[in-house]
Amino acid sequence: MSGPRPGPPAREEYAVWRLATTRWSDDDVYGHMNNARYFDLIDTAVNAHLAEATGVDIRRLDAVGVVAEVGCRYFREMGYPRPVDLGLVVDRVGTSSVTYRVGLFQGDPAGEGATAAAEGRFVHVYVDNTGAGRDVRPLPEAVRDAVTPLLRDTRRA
Which of 23, 74, 84, 123 is the most buried if burial means most Cβ atoms within 10 Å? Predict the structure, then answer.
């Protein structure tokens, strides 16, 4: 039997930030952001950081990251028309994989936005991108250099 579910993470647990806008179409018939949009934002936070931090077209590297795992824990509703702050941190850098956490925050950072409305877990596994198949490959050095500074020992139970 597991213990109580950990509460929402705080802003200080994340290393880098990005701002995302919300759109009318992000909300579903229940009046809050559709779960598929959370996954779009999580994917965007990771890949936009990689593209900016490496300074290269990450789609053209000899090894590219494919999603091996993605999940999201929800703590409170989010929705249009409020922007979303995306915090990114790395929990693990392996030989051929990276494990990220992405916090989604909405609202005043000194108020309700001090803790995450949701948190995603995202695992990239690097595979061959040279046309020789999709065998697992080591992380490209440009990726390793971009994610290592985000490594934090803030994993939550």
Answer: 84
